[in-house]
Amino acid sequence: MNGTQLLGGLFGAGIAIGLLTIVKGLRPGLEGSSAIPSRWASLATSLSPRRLTGQKPRVAACAAGAAGLVAWTGWPAMTVIGFLALWYLPRVLGPDKVSRHAIELSDAIATFAEMLRDTLSAAAGLQQAVMAAAPLAPEPITAPCTRLAEQIDTGTPLAEAIAAWADQVADRHADVVAGCLIIASRRQSGNTAAVLNNVAASAREQASIRRRAVASQAKPRTSVRVTICVVLALFGVLMFGDPPFMAPYDSVRGQIVLLVASGVFGVALRWLDKILHPDPEPRVLTHLAIVANSRQAVAAW
User: Fold this and answer.
1) Closest of 37, 42, 44, 38 to residue 23, by C-alpha
2) How far apart are the first and last CA of the chain?
3) 6 in the Ramachandran plot: left (φ > 0), alpha (ψ -120 to 50) or beta?
4) What is the CB-side half-sphere exposure of residue 150 using CA atoms within 13 A?
5) CA-CA-CA-CA torsion for 171, 177, 179, 185, nearest 10 degrees?
6) 16: Cβ–Cβ under 8 A, 6 or more apart, which residues?
7) Which residues, 6 or more positions from 129, have their beta carbon under 8 angstroms from its beta carbon?
């Protein structure tokens, strides 16, 4: 690696850092804002130092892979290209764990709401119903429900424990279930079981919609994977089979062209990834803890 190649690699890294800085500057400045962040703001968030610090093994693996690519190709630009490719390709090429978790979470909340509904219909008290249903909660919400039962058992007020449970689950249907239970704990109402039944039906419908969406995305997802694999295979064949064909990329101009071409390809992949992995639906009832701690009367349904 000569000085010209090193200068080109540093130039490319500077462009990438500058772009990420611009994106970060375009993010909403108010932390309390309820606006949904843009796609580019979410990209900057995913690559923020705080987020990367919490994923040290993954960062180390991607950095090691990028260093190996630089040593193999002799191209400093592969520092940026290799790191970003190794960071995002497993998400695009791998199974859709995000959608599967969202479906399982909706089903679990629906099951928990139905358990509470059935227990309340058996003339049990609200706290007794929660304590009876929490140990039997499905897998995606087992830990939050276990924590909920422990808090109630140690004397935490029911409303505060339910609000903490909703924040831990972090799902809009869980927020509705928690709001229903908080209101029921503050004001006696005979409609709690009916409201829980409606919430369960809504969560089931949401899970059904997600299943249909995942099924409809199977074909484009396969097309994306095939395209990526063909591009990577062609790159490897040219590097091994015809090194003179790739020789122009050894220059500074070639490194810049490589960065630009890779950037266009990366933007397209990022766009496809956002289409295949839509942002989760925003939570609406996000201040249940304030309601739980409030001494003012809460309106019943």
Assistant:
1) 44
2) 72
3) alpha
4) 8
5) -140
6) 80, 259
7) 116, 119, 120
Q: At what angle do helices 142-153 and 158-169 cross, to 10 degrees?
A: 160
For residue 68, CA distances in Å to 45, 55, 71, 79 come to 26, 20, 5, 9
Q: What is the CA radius of gyration of the chain?
A: 25
Can you tell me the distance from the alpha carbon of 231 to that of 55, in angstroms, rounded to the nearest whole number? 28
Q: What does the block give as tokens for 84?
A: 């970003």
Predicted confidence (pLDDT) at residue 109 exceeds the cutoff of 90: yes
At 210-268, the pLDDT tens digits run 888 888 878 878 888 888 888 888 888 888 888 888 888 888 888 898 888 888 888 88
Question: Sign of the C-alpha dihedral, residues 71, 6, 251, 234?
Answer: positive
Q: In sequence order, which residues have a C-beta less than 8 Å from that of residue 189 and are 6 or more positions away?
A: 183, 300, 301
CB contact at 8 A, 265 and 231: yes
Tokens of 190: 């005979």
What local confidence, expressed as pLDDT, does residue 39 receive? 47
Closest listed residue to residue 168, CA positions, set 187, 189, 193, 140? 140
Tens digit of each residue's pLDDT (9 = 90 or more) over 265-279: 888 877 877 777 777
Pairwise CA distance, residues 106 & 213, whole Å: 15
Say if pTM beats, i.e. exceeds, 0.70: no
CA distance 22 to 162: 41
Task: Report the mean per-residue pLDDT for the chain.
Answer: 77
Are 252 and 8 in contact, with CB atoms under 8 Å apart? Answer: yes
Residue 95 to residue 73: CA distance in whole angstroms? 30
Query: Which residue in 230, 227, 209 sits closest to 219, CA to CA?
Result: 227
The amino acid that residue 261 corresponds to is: A
